[in-house]
Amino acid sequence: QQGALVAAESTTPATIQLDAAARVDITFILHVPEDTPPSVPVRMAGNLYQLGNTFADLSGGISTLAARMPVLAPLPDGTYGIILSLPAGADLRYKYTFGDGFWNAEHAASGEFVLRQMIVPDAPTVIEDHVGTWHAGDAAPITFDITVPANTPPGENISIQLNPYGWTEPLPMWHLGGDRWAYILYSPLDMVNQIGYRYCRAEQCGHADDARTPGDFTSGQIVQTSTDPLSLPDKVEAWAWLETDLPGFENLEGLGAKLRGPEFVAGVEFQEMYHPSWVPRLPAALDEVASLGANWVILTPSWTFTRLDPPVLEPVAGQDPLWLEIAATIRQAQGRDLNVALRPVPHFPTAVDEWWSSAPRDFPWWVSWFDRYQAFVLHHADLAEQNGVQTLILGGEWMSPALPSGSLSNGDPSGVPPDAEARYRELLAKVREHFSGTVAWALSYPEGVLNPPGFLDEIDQIYVLWSAPLAANADASPADLQTEAERIISADIYGMWLIWKQQSGNESLVISLAYPSVEGILTGCLADPIVECIPPESLKYPAPDYPLLELGLEDQARAYQAVMAAVSQHEWVGGVVSRGYYPPAVLHDKSTSVHGKPAEDVLHAWFEEFR
Fold it and tell me: Fewer beta carbons under 10 A from the terminal one: N or C of the chain?
């Protein structure tokens, strides 16, 4: 036992050490009923991470995702098999399915769900299991057979989402070849009389939907269960947020940029939001990033503020990626010769400005806030160090009230303690004890760049968050847009960079671009009849629902072209990053993501020029 003195109203650290369990190879052999559809993937669902468990409360109360479950291999004798490396001594709960843990899971002959249990032995073992039935009750199977549009991106699988009492997590459909996909629903049809359903791409229902049933608030199409088998042939005419004809962008050859070499940061930063369904799609997303000519990927792991008073910042499964997930993504990126940076970000339950203004912000509150922020930063410093990450990016616009002499969005003082600068210097010293790579600080433009914090001399790299307006008129010429971008770099950023360079002895500065694809973005004010001016950062999540804003794919591309051309004129700028990339699917939406949009072609052309 360890003794600990717990002080009242204070944080008390406790050191707890765990030993890793030995891994044991367990072989599972499965016998299935005769009516099991041939060539259909049979999966294992369970309570361990490697059996699809996300440890989260996802849509419909589901915690396991079919796309993350291991698939058994069909064997010549009609059985299925898989070998899993499991931790010895683990209390394993599992079942077999060709859906998830709820849909199309195995049942006993009497109709009940089956949940198997075993304590993982400390020596290799063969387990032989038999599925009683895939059915439950008298309702007959329902066959969904669909044809998808020709512009469906290759490599994106098709999913079906079911709604018995609320939307559950999407299920991968089975590819029949060409544009046809199918799925047979067997169970638990005894629990419902009717089911809502819809189709989507890459398990991203709510974003990459069938155009007939888009968004989070649709009831979908409806089917009644029956004692007779049902077949539902269907055709998806179009996908939401997927254009058939994209505007082209001319003059992307012979840009005339000077070669910068491998030290130049040509990067892509993933969106700050997260969902566990992203994980199976991340290898393909990293392939796409590498194909752009990028040499860096910036990941944005997160924690969530779950309480305001006292402030509690902690990881929430389902909203924030697990350590294992981030570590796996880092390895996958490194395997594609991509350098990796982490930019940890918090998630807020309300708008950021509202959260800060609602907080007490008295001295005890700030002491607790700095404790929570330190735990958040050091956690990600350890994550970066243990996984060979080159750069850790701290700061960001959300932190403005917590910086020395900080203020709220309305201009009122935030009440941050007068020793805030000393606290940040102490924190950065602790970061150095945990992380040996480059420590960067994210400054927003213009506020952060024009009023940088005094402790920047402790920082190795500056990461400028750029969404700056480039014109007073949306019809400005390409030359005028580039001229304004060059003015910002020369007049505002360069002066700050010179002072920081002299104080710190460092010179690495990277510009991180985020322009949503909406008309009006070139002026920096997204005009809405209801809201006078929507800031660009309001559209940093997938498929933002601003129906009164017009899609502006070409405007986004023009903004990228102007800034990239301006950067090419300033050799002291050490890199450019596209911020807000949506990894799991192509969306021609209004967000800041360039994935699959004309701006991505602009980015690709310039990355190739710089390298």
Answer: N
Query: For the domain that residue 369 is a member of, what is the CATH number?
Result: 3.20.20.80
Are both 124 and 154 inside the same structural domain? Answer: no
Q: Give the count of domains, the chain.
A: 3
Neighbouring C-beta atoms of residue 289, cutoff 10 Å:
24
3-state SS, residue 438: strand
* Per-residue exposure over 358-380, b if at least 16 CB sit within 10 Å of its own CB, e if not: ebebeeebbbbbbebbbebbbbb
Sequence-distant (6+) residues with CB within 8 A of 434 are 378, 381, 382, 385
Are 202 and 277 found together in one domain?
no
Residue linked to tokens 């907080």:
359
Structural domain span for residue 114: 23-130
Tokens of 200: 């989507």
Note whether 102 and 150 are same-domain residues. no
Q: How many CB atoms are located within 10 Å of the residue 114 CB? A: 17
Which tens digit of pLDDT belongs to each residue from 134-161? 999 999 999 999 999 999 999 999 999 9
Return the structure tokens found at 445.
């433009």
Question: 362 with 290, same domain?
Answer: yes
Q: Decide: pTM greater than 0.85.
A: yes
C-beta neighbour count of 458 within 10 angstroms: 19
Q: Is 196 in the same domain as 278?
A: no
In a domain, 5, yes or no: no
- Name the pairing type of β-strands 142-147 and 391-395: unpaired
360-385 per-position pLDDT tens digit: 999 999 999 999 999 999 999 999 99
495 and 428 within one domain: yes
Q: Quick one: which H or E segment has residue 287?
A: helix 282-291
Tokens of 115: 């949940």
Determine, yes or no, domain membership for 527. Answer: no
Quick one: tokens of 412? Answer: 């009122």
SS3 190: helix
98 and 36 in a single domain? The answer is yes
Longest dimension (CA), the chain: 79
Task: Give the type of residue at 64.
Answer: T
> How is 357-418 classified by DSSP, letter by letter?
HHS---HHHHHHHHHHHHHHHHHHHHHHHHTT-SEEEEE-GGGGGGSTT-B-TTS-B----T
* Dist CA 405 CA 382 (whole Å): 29
Contacts of 586 (CB under 8 A, 6+ apart): 153, 156, 208, 242, 595, 596
